[in-house]
Amino acid sequence: MPQSQQEEEEGDVVEIVTTTGDRDVVDEGHFTSENAQILIGEIMGCNRNLENIKQNINDVQNKMKNIIDVLGKV
Fold first, then answer.
1. Which of the four, 8, 14, 32, 47, has the lowest number of CB atoms within 10 Å?
2. What are the boundaries of each domain within the chain?
3. What is the pTM of this model?
């Protein structure tokens, strides 16, 4: 939910707590550049995993198409 400009100017503190594996990323309201870098790294890792999954799906779909084409010729 977006905050109004007035709320942002008042400097509301938002606590972000998450973990990457067994490691706490953010300690009680202290979000640092290092925390941001850790989260960015996690996002990049997830994107890489998703790209690998997409490629595997495409490979399997192509293999199935080839098998169906061969069966169609039988």
1. 14
2. 35-73
3. 0.55
Tens digits of per-residue pLDDT, 15-44?
555 555 655 555 667 788 898 999 999 999
Phi and psi at 16, nearest 5°, equal -115, 120
Residue 6 — left, alpha, or beta (φ > 0 → left; ψ -120 to 50 → alpha)?
alpha
Residues in the chain: 74
pLDDT band at 8 (very low <50, low <70, confident <90, very high): very low
Q: How far apart, in whole angstroms, are the C-alpha atoms of residue 65 and residue 69?
A: 6
